[in-house]
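RECORD TYPE: inverse folding
INPUT: structure tokens
STRUCTURE:
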């Protein structure tokens, strides 16, 4: 430890004198063994008050909280096509650069573009959820409640458009696998998202993916509604 006095520096030596107990380390060892024995017996006979619970995975699985960011999925429209309009917002917002999109032209008047290629490299993904925040059409969600499966090769860790469309949301899986029109999950910022299952009318998401404060609770344009 140093002390400064009138422009000069004095060095003060601070020492810790160890007594006999500290030098033998016996009290510390006994204390550690005591904690181990206490946890051992409480985990065996403690019932619901156990320190830790063993889950018989994979027969028994832990149910994750609603805000758990699970594997990505693309939300389909009624015709099975993804809601994505290839605006590149998610790809731009992704800090890990794990999203790859190739846009294609479509004859559908409701949208300008569609994703001819939509791939996510789950091995590079940091599960930040910024792609969900940035999407103006609620086309991508992380509400599946499942982890990406372990793979042996890098190619297996890259999920293409059809793979992402096949993933169900947590609530859809509980309902037996049927597609539902459940409201979009809340964002990390705590703001409500608008459902745009029919696209954004070619506007490119000018109103954003959030509920505008001036029109809170009111529909915005054709085929657009808030929850």
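DESIGNED SEQUENCE:
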């Amino acid at each position: 430890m140093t002390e400064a006095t009138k422009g000069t520096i004095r060095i003060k030596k601070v020492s810790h004198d160890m007594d006999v107990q500290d030098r033998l380390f016996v009290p510390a060892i006994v204390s550690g063994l005591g904690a181990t024995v206490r946890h051992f017996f409480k985990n065996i006979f403690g019932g619901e008050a156990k320190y830790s619970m063993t889950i018989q995975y994979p027969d028994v699985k832990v149910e994750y909280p609603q805000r758990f960011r699970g594997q990505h999925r693309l939300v389909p429209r009624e015709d099975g096509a993804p809601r994505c309009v290839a605006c590149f917002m998610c790809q731009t917002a992704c800090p890990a650069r794990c999203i790859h999109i190739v846009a294609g032209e479509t004859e559908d008047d409701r949208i300008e573009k569609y994703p001819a290629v939509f791939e996510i490299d789950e091995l590079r993904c940091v599960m930040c959820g910024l792609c969900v925040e940035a999407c103006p059409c609620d086309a991508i969600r992380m509400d599946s409640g499942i982890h990406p499966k372990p793979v042996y090769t890098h190619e297996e860790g890259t999920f293409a458009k059809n793979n992402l469309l096949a993933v169900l949301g947590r609530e859809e899986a509980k309902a037996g696998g049927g597609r539902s029109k459940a409201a979009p999950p809340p964002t990390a910022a705590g703001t409500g998202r608008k459902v745009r299952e029919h696209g954004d009318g070619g506007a490119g998401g000018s109103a954003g993916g959030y509920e505008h404060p001036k029109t809170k609770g009111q529909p915005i344009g054709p085929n657009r509604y808030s929850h």
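NOTES: Confidence is low (pLDDT under 50) at residues 187-192, 199-227.
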